[in-house]
Write a structure and sequence with these properties.
Length: about 200
């Protein structure tokens, strides 16, 4: 589990000393459950996060067959767009009840519920979801490759590499694959890259 949060106060702080409570989902957790999107983590494991309740067509049991990006709700109140590093994140247009924000360039996801979310300014009354981008680390060289296959025919590969010296560091994440669902002939190709120096 995460012991620190960067999102709650805009600087690194122990979660036990933070002025608000948060649910923190680390990259290790997302890898353990084989999650490929932020929404998949939140709807499955956050407890209070669901598809927006005022949308009668929002169902999580029919992937690939919804009018797309209906949004998330926290405690039954709309959560608005997922933040990226504290700012408004990229819009998504996936055809699911919650939308789809891929997690290949994300290091962690934090959910702040209720009025504590005012730390982020104008957000939904139910709370706010903030994602933290992967960061280049100084003095460290590391890399990983993940291959994900499922029973529907999805093939997904993610390469994540960090090269850090004393004064300069760079990180690169690459994504490539084909997604498929339990609905016949619904899916698409997905490619992406994320870099930080």
């Amino acid at each position: 589990g995460a012991l620190e949060s960067n999102s709650l106060t805009a600087f690194r702080m122990d979660l036990t000393k933070a002025p608000a409570t948060a649910q923190v989902f680390t990259q290790t957790f997302m890898d353990d459950i084989a999650a490929t999107s932020i929404e998949e983590v939140l709807a499955g494991y956050a407890g209070t996060v669901t598809a927006t309740s005022n949308n009668p067509n929002a169902q999580l049991d029919m992937p690939g067959d919804r009018d797309g990006s209906q949004g998330l709700s926290i405690r039954g109140v709309g959560a608005g767009e997922i933040k990226r590093d504290g700012f408004i994140g990229p819009m998504n247009s996936a055809r699911t009840a919650t939308g789809r924000t891929d997690s290949f360039g994300i290091d962690r996801v934090e959910v702040i519920e209720g009025p504590q979310s005012l730390l982020y300014g104008s957000v939904g009354g139910g709370g706010v979801v903030n994602s933290t981008s992967k960061r280049a680390n100084f003095g460290r060289r590391s890399g990983s490759f993940r291959l994900l296959l499922d029973q529907y025919g999805t093939k997904r590969g993610v390469l994540d590499f960090n090269q850090g010296g004393k004064n300069v560091a760079a990180r690169l994440a690459l994504l490539g694959g084909e997604t498929a669902t339990n609905r016949y002939k619904l899916g698409d190709d997905i490619h992406g890259y994320y870099a930080q120096v």
